[in-house]
Each structure stands twice: as C-alpha cells, then as structure tokens.
Amino acid sequence: MKIATWNVNSLAVRLPHLLDWLATAAPDVVCLQETKLEDARFPLREIRDAGYPHVLASGQKTYNGVALLARTPITDAVAGIPAFSDDQKRLVGATVGGVRVVGCYVPNGQAVGSEAFAYKLRWLEALRIWLARELARNPRLVVVGDFNVAPEPRDVHDPVLWEGHILFSPAEREAFSRLLGIGLQDAFRLFDQPDQTFSWWDYRMNAFRRNRGLRIDHILVSQALAPGVRACGIERSLRALERPSDHAPVVAEIDAHAQ
DNA sequence: ATGGCTTGAGTGTCAAGA
User: Fold this and answer.
1) Residue A259 lies in a domain
2) Which nucleotides of strand B lie under 7 Å from a protein CB?
C-alpha cells in the first residue's frame, strides 16, 4: 500500500497539481490538509475520475479542511478527534485494506505562549489519548499529516535560528515525542535520508531555492506496520512547480501484511 | 524586530499560515 500526505494549501488552487501527481505517483491512499473548501464544493467528480472513488472530506470555508482519498473502499470513518470539541476541521480517519489510516492537520500555533499555541498543545494531547485507544483497537495504524512540528535539529535548516520558535519549541517537540511514545515510529527515519530534506519552505525570501525549510509533515507507523515499511520519502519536485503549495507530499510504501 | 509571499474573503485590505 502506497500512502501519501500533502498539505495542498487550497484544493481549489492546487487541483491541477493534485490530479497530475495522482496520475504519476499513483498512491493507494492520500490524506490532504488545508483544502479550504466546504464539503459541498469538494471536487468529487475530478477526484473520482482520477481513480479515487472513495472519499472522506471534512472541510470548512477559508481555513483548515482535510480529506482522505482511497482507491478501495473505506470503513469506520471518523471526522474530528472523538470526544474533543473542535470547530476546526482538522482530522479524518478510516480503515482501508485492514489498515487504520488517520490524516491530521495539527494547529499551527502562531506564536509560543499564545492562545493558539495552547490550543495546539491541547489538540496534540487529545490526539495522543485518542490514538492510544485506536492503536489498542487496531494495531495496524498509520498517522499522517501536517504536524506543524519539526521533531529534531536535523529537520530544520537552521536549528539555532529556529530554537524556541513556533514549530520547533521544546513544548511542541515534547508533545510530538509523547505521540511517538504510544508506539509509533517516524517512517522517514526508518531509512537513511539525504541531509537537509524538508517538507515545507516559506513562500518568502526564496526559501525553496535556498532550501531553507523544515520537515513538519510526517508519516507515523505503528510497531505492527514498521517492519513492512519499504520506503519513505518527500516529493520535493512538487514544490518547484508554478504556483506551488508551500508543502511537498510525503509518501510511504507499506507492505501491510509483512511480519 | 519586521517583512518578505500566498490564499480566501470580497472589492478594502486583512487574517492566517509557518
């Protein structure tokens, strides 16, 4: 199973890029973030025609919005973290081919110490508690998305500059680490990777051309799935297109039946 | 420290992203 996550920063704007990429990369399951579309405006027909008839969308106007696209049927769909009251559309989950897939768009947090930052930490804690129960119910769990956290110094182009700032503060890294603590592994780090590999680059200051980025989009796999992960990488080329998203997709190839 | 881009809203210019 090839699973991918991509923060498209407006599905309305990025639909041509998405359709081109689905045709070439051909993932089995795709989680999208920042669709910025109400469900009534979701481009279901185009996505279906691209080979993804099974769609779970949870969107809203202007901000946030997530979706899960699959080639094969999905069951046990959820939208939002159960038992966590939240007006913002940030999570979808479903079972596909015996694998529990969760796609999330973790709050950005704006600035360390702000109300938005407190919401981000609350959100991550609620996610952790719920995922621990999901994992108990289905050991074959993969959690993907835009986590808005760079886990380690090597995930930041200039860790000294970013230390303590939003996306790379101790509290956020600790929250991410606690998430892994329930029994998840960062699929990207199961392999040797080139130095300075990132998933997000600011639109400003020629950040992409200078490779001044962060790795904040992740694919996390449970212990049951980890031995079956065959590859994981970031599709940097999409960030180089005309009118790109500021994020590049992350893709993992998982043999869900490996022992 | 600020602004530097991009998007959606809506037609002014601002909020939010990260």
Assistant:
1) no
2) 3-9, 16-18
Catalytic option among A28, A52, A146, A246: A146
Closest residue (CA) to C1' of nucleotide B6 is A203
Hunting for tokens 């799935």 — which residue is that?
A225
Q: Which of A70, A131, A83 is nearest to A104 (CA)?
A: A131
Interval A217-247: pLDDT, tens: 999 999 999 999 999 999 999 999 999 999 9
Q: State how many domains chain A has.
A: 1
Q: How many Cα neighbours within 13 Å face the side chain of A11? A: 28
Displacement of CA A157 from its chain's centroid (Å): 20
The CATH number of whichever domain residue A141 belongs to comes to: 3.60.10.10
Residues 6+ apart with CB under 8 A from A235: A21, A25, A248, A249, A250, A251
Å: A208 CA to B4 C1': 13
- Distance of C1' in B1 from CA in A203, Å: 20
pTM exceeds cut of 0.90: yes
| Catalytic residue status for A63 | no
The model's pLDDT over A79-108, given as tens digits with 9 standing for 90+, comes to: 999 999 999 999 999 999 999 999 999 999
A105 is known as an active-site residue: yes
Q: Where do runs of H (alpha helix) occur along chain A?
A: 11-25, 44-49, 115-137, 159-162, 170-180
> Which amino acid residue lies closest to nucleotide B18, measuring CA to C1'?
A108
Q: What domain range is A71 assigned to? A: 2-254
